[in-house]
Amino acid sequence: MVSRTTRLLIVPLLGVTAAACEPGKAAGPDNFTGDARRGADLVKQYQCGSCHDIPGIAGADGNVGPPLHRIGTRTYIAGYIHNSPDNMAAWIEDPQRALPGNAMPKMGIPQKDARDIAAFLYTLK
Fold first, then answer.
1. Cβ burial 45-68 (10 Å sphere, 16+ → b, else e)
2. Which region among 1-5, 51-55, 64-68, 104-108 has the lowest average model confidence (pLDDT)?
3. Residue 112 near residue 34, CB atoms below 8 Å
4. Is 72:27 a contact under the CB 8 Å cutoff?
5. How many other CB atoms are found less than 10 A from the CB of residue 41?
6. The pLDDT value given to residue 117
7. What is the pTM of this model?
8. Nearest 5°: phi and psi at 66?
């Protein structure tokens, strides 16, 4: 017998998996507000490149976190979260709330900044 808790965890994962496999469901900023130019500046300000290799950002050649090349085309964030602009912004704002126990620390990035950083990351295709 599957416990109620297990069902509560499995059902959303199945939905994410099904959505990720549907054609035409690629991530992108179509209905998302964020300033990609400001986001690039914020990536520098928050020193995201000390952990990540980020194309287009001078000195952003970290290797603690994954490289962010083509992050705008990936299916998942952190291997578990469906990649969408809103999910990316939520991840940047509070990665521990989005996926408890993951390696990315909460950086104190406010929602507006997180949305602008996400907008920039979606230019990386």
1. ebebbebbbbeebeebebeebbeb
2. 1-5
3. no
4. yes
5. 15
6. 98
7. 0.76
8. -70, 150
